[in-house]
Design brief:
Strand content: 5-15%
Distance between the termini: 53 Å
Structural class: alpha+beta
Shape: globular
Strand order of the largest sheet: 2-1-3-4
Length: 226
């Protein structure tokens, strides 16, 4: 009987799906992918995802995992490690900064879905730039956040940085133009990795723009006019 492949259920643009896909590509793990419409979720999603969210990951015939951080850590650990430190304290530091990046992704979601006017968007964009200054001061990365080795921290921040060119179209407070030099260098290195570029559609930015244009927010109204 053939071995069952891993399977990920997600959305084409979802940053949390991206980090799992990047992990599998980095580890050369075979998988199948099914992307769904989050505005028209299939009824069966609730059966395998307690929150009705993606990604959901099939680890075995009847074993479904949810929460991208949990899935990525499982994949790394079950394939020999390397994307998270083995030392418990170092690992905890990495996990803390991944959580910090998740907080920044929540700001991105606020811009896309909830900020009702230009003032709110400016405030959110300024919040992102201030947090990026903190990231830069704490990491001052070489090639990657851990030094010379790509890891899950890079994976999580990559999904955040990918938003910036599109978000910068929405406000005069442009995040991309205000990135510290070390983070510019880091992003140039990370986005060139095949795993990072392959985790999204080739026309990602255009598709993201169309996605935002369909939202009932200030960002949606601005993008719909571009």
């Amino acid at each position: 009987m053939p071995e069952q492949r891993y399977k990920i259920v997600g959305h084409r643009l979802c940053p949390y799906v991206q980090r799992v896909v990047i992990t599998m590509l980095e580890k050369d793990i075979a998988f199948d992918r099914l992307d769904i419409d989050l505005d028209n979720k299939p009824d069966w999603l609730q059966e395998i995802s307690p929150f009705g969210q993606v990604p959901v990951f099939r680890a075995g015939p009847d074993d479904w995992l949810f929460e991208s951080g949990v899935i990525a850590a499982f994949l790394d650990g079950s394939s020999g490690g390397g994307l998270l430190p083995g030392d418990p304290l170092a690992r905890a530091r990495h996990e803390a900064w991944m959580s910090y990046a998740d907080g920044m992704l929540n700001i991105v979601a606020r811009i896309i879905y909830r900020d009702a006017d230009a003032t709110a968007v400016r405030r959110s964009m300024a919040d992102l730039t201030e947090r990026l200054d903190i990231v830069n001061a704490r990491f001052a990365p070489k090639d990657y956040f851990a030094g010379s080795d790509f890891g899950l921290v890079d994976t999580v921040f990559a999904t955040l940085f990918r938003y910036f060119p599109v978000l910068d179209m929405l406000s005069e407070v442009a995040v991309g133009d205000r990135l510290p030099g070390t983070l510019v260098t880091w992003w140039e290195t990370v986005r060139a990795r095949p795993s990072v570029s392959a985790a999204v559609p080739r026309d990602y930015e255009a598709e993201l723009g169309r996605f935002i244009a369909g939202k009932q927010s200030h960002a949606g109204r601005v993008m719909a006019q571009l």
